[in-house]
Write a structure and sequence with these properties.
The structure holds two protein chains of two kinds. Chain A contains five helices and five strands. Chain A has a three-stranded antiparallel β-sheet with strand order 2-3-5. In chain A, a hairpin with a 6-residue loop joins strand 2 and strand 3. Chain A is elongated and about 95 Å long. By secondary structure, chain B is an alpha+beta fold. Chain B contains 15 helices and eight strands. The chains are: A alpha+beta, B alpha+beta. Chains A and B meet through helix 2 of A and helix 2, helix 5 and helix 6 of B.
Chain lengths: 151, 370
């Protein structure tokens, strides 16, 4: 009898609708208005790579040891260096990083002994061309250009 | 009398997928139909084959770790744990207690995330759209914890061979505890929406029955096996990563139909919360990485380690020839093995049920095809 009444008065359906109704309050809005509202990115987020420079002198921190290129599973980092005749030290000449093949695993960052290569919180990596996804040393040092939205 | 034509035939062969949204990826099912009744099915897989096992032979042990995340991308942390445990067994090292506790927390959070996504998409397939939004909201909280801990949300690469790469971030315990507290009432909310709902019950009860005997024949594991009444969970049967320290139950159900599998997964989420609450209460102090050396070079030998992933038994078999690269990596993916039971479950049912059955197996095509 009780079961019949529950069936006739649609108790199970109304119960579900009540849950939906409870969640209608504006307090419960969870959607992020993405381009208008910037998402909060975690400090450890692994996004766009950056090649750190010494902020005072502008010299690169990279010692061209090639460890990041060896650690990379996809072999997408190419480091080339030249030995300075006077100081007898290796100096970085070019550094290429292919974003299009990167899976942001963070192994290059872990391998770097001087914290020169770092994965930053930048996550907007789109480019109009495939070549644009291959970042050279200048791009890595300056970081991607800020994105502007018109809306 | 005119000759019989194709249109007169009773049987109809229908292609479902690979672009069908309810196949959860790129699964193609060839259905043999008699009207609405399914006479037989055949799965065509391999649309997402990336050769992960072969890639493993060409990468060093540390380098291969990010690739395993991309098999079952919904439960990337579990995949990483299985792989790390397998290599650790080869190396004969064990992760320190602190690393083990953090591993347990993250894998159980990932189990909840995986079950939540399953619940949302399964309900969506059947026609209940609302749970998907609620489920995504809670999953977001878990992904935020992952992001804050290891810097990635989906393909996390959270663990390293021998322990962890990252120390627990400030406020992680608090955030995890807050999630547990918030999450249990939410599970009740899902149950309120679905468990007693008459449409949900009509679509699920008695659909896709798989008995315990059939489960064993197919090698089906995970919630499918537990819903058939077999109390089998690798976390209890052969504890790894310190699971023997935690107190939890294995939910089982007797009937082995789609509704029972839904109940089992809902209960499993509650049990996971129980494990997380115990683990986060006492994360031991100490190092997070065992001594494994910079270059991982296991001795000649082979190791098989299986863990209880959200979808079932996830096994890694690694053969080492003493070099820095594995000689062979074989993965036993739960989705692939469980998918075999599709034909048995669907045969004799209706076309509309096939969507419910594919949903209830909880496959991830990245893992089926590898």
């Amino acid at each position: 009898m009780r079961k019949l009444l529950r069936t006739v008065f649609l108790v199970d359906l109304i119960q579900g609708l009540w849950v939906t109704f409870r969640n209608q309050h504006p307090r419960n809005i969870y959607t992020e208005q993405y381009p208008a509202q910037r998402p909060r990115i975690a400090e450890r987020y692994r996004g766009a790579p950056r090649l750190n420079i010494n902020p005072e002198t502008g010299e690169t921190l990279c010692i061209a040891c090639d460890l990041c290129a060896l650690a990379c599973p996809e072999n997408l980092i190419v480091v080339s260096s030249e030995r300075n005749k006077q100081t007898r030290r290796k100096e970085l000449t070019t550094f290429t990083y292919d974003i299009s093949r990167c899976m942001f695993c963070g192994l290059c960052e872990d391998a770097c002994p001087v914290d020169a290569l770092e994965l930053t919180q930048d996550f907007e990596l789109a480019s109009y061309t495939r070549e644009g996804a291959i970042w050279d040393r200048q791009m890595l040092e300056e970081g991607p250009k800020p994105t502007w939205y018109r809306y | 009398m005119p000759e019989a034509t194709f249109l007169d035939a009773n049987e109809l062969v229908l292609n479902m997928g690979p672009q069908h949204p309810s196949t959860h990826g790129v699964l193609r099912v060839i259905l043999k139909l008699d009207g609405e009744k399914i006479l037989g099915t055949e799965c065509v897989i391999g649309y997402l084959h990336r050769g992960v096992e072969k890639i493993g032979e060409n990468r060093t042990y540390a380098m291969f770790a990010p690739y395993v995340d991309r098999m079952d991308y919904v439960a990337a942390v579990s995949n990483g744990l299985g792989y790390c445990l397998a290599v650790e067994k080869l190396l004969n090292v064990e992760a320190p207690p602190r690393a083990q506790a953090v591993r347990v927390i993250l894998t159980e959070l990932n189990r909840i995330a995986s079950h939540l996504l399953w619940l949302g998409t399964h309900a969506l397939d059947i026609g209940a759209i609302t749970p998907l939004f609620y489920v995504m909201r809670e999953r977001e909280e878990i992904l935020n914890i992952f992001e804050a801990y290891c810097g990635a949300r989906l393909t996390t690469h959270a663990f390293r061979i021998g322990g962890l790469q990252y120390e627990v971030y400030e406020g992680m315990e608090k955030q995890v505890k807050a999630f547990c507290k918030m999450f249990l009432p939410r599970v009740d909310e899902y149950e309120e929406l679905l468990t007693e709902n008459r449409i949900w019950k009509d679509r699920l009860v008695g659909v896709g029955v798989l008995t315990a005997e059939q489960c064993k024949q197919f090698g089906v594991t995970g919630p499918l096996l537990r819903a058939a009444g077999v109390k089998w969970d690798l976390r209890k049967a052969q504890p790894y990563s310190g699971y023997e320290k935690y107190d939890f139950e294995i939910p089982t159900r007797p009937n082995g139909d789609t509704y029972d599998r839904y109940i089992v997964r809902i209960q499993e989420m509650r049990q996971s919360v129980r494990i997380i609450e115990q683990a986060v209460e006492g994360i031991p102090e100490g190092p997070i990485l065992a001594k494994v050396g910079k270059v991982i070079k296991p001795p000649v030998g082979e190791a098989y380690v299986s863990i209880e992933a959200p979808k079932g038994e996830l096994g890694y078999f690694i053969v080492s020839d003493g070099s820095t690269q594995p000689y062979r990596v074989r993965v036993r993916p739960p989705s692939f093995v469980n998918l075999q039971a599709l034909d048995t479950m669907a045969r004799g049912g209706l076309v509309a049920d096939i969507v419910a059955i594919i949903g209830t197996i909880d496959i991830v095509l990245g893992e089926v095809d590898r």
